Amino acid sequence: MREIELTQRAKALLSKMRLEHPNLVLLIDDSSCCSNSNIMVREEKPNWPVTLLCNKDGVRVYLNPILEKSLEVSKMIIDALDFTDDSFSLETEYGKRLIMSTI
């Protein structure tokens, strides 16, 4: 993966969330519990093996190493939607859900 881009909506949401969760991280994983997004927002880095991809606007982005081959893309775009589901991802507490698209 070469580049990760946050939309303005995602940047605004993450900035707001960092006020309450200063060690906020994004984990790109094979699933995010009970939803269809592959992005899980957590308060801390998981305690299992993950690869640090980058730091975007003060938020560390990690990848489950299992996905390294399947996510050989030139760009990943992360956006925020007004949506809540039954995920344990932290952004649902704000009535939002992060999604990703790839190029």
Description:
The chain is mostly beta strands and 103 residues long. The chain is built from one helix and seven strands. The protein has a single domain, classed as Hypothetical Protein Aq_1857, Chain: A (Sandwich), CATH 2.60.300. The model has no long low-confidence stretch (mean pLDDT 86). The chain is globular.
Layout of SSEs?
Layout: E1 3-6, H1 8-20, E2 25-28, E3 39-42, E4 51-56, E5 59-63, E6 75-82, E7 96-102
Parallel strand pairs: 1-6, 2-5
Antiparallel strand pairs: 2-3, 4-5, 6-7
Residues in β-strands, percent: 35-45%
Order of helices and strands: EHEEEEEE
- Helical residue percent band: 10-25%
The CATH topology corresponds to: Hypothetical Protein Aq_1857, Chain: A
Task: Write a brief structural summary.
By secondary structure, this protein is mainly beta.
List the main descriptive attributes of the protein structure presented here.
103 residues; mainly beta; Hypothetical Protein Aq_1857, Chain: A; 3-stranded mixed β-sheet
